[in-house]
Amino acid sequence: MVIVGIGFVIRVLMDGVFVVMWSYLAESYPTHIRNSGTGFIYSSGRLLTAGAMIVVPMIYKDFGYATLFYIIGGMFLLVAVVTGIWGERTAGRSLDEIA
Question: pTM, whole model, 2 decimals?
Answer without folding.
Answer: 0.69
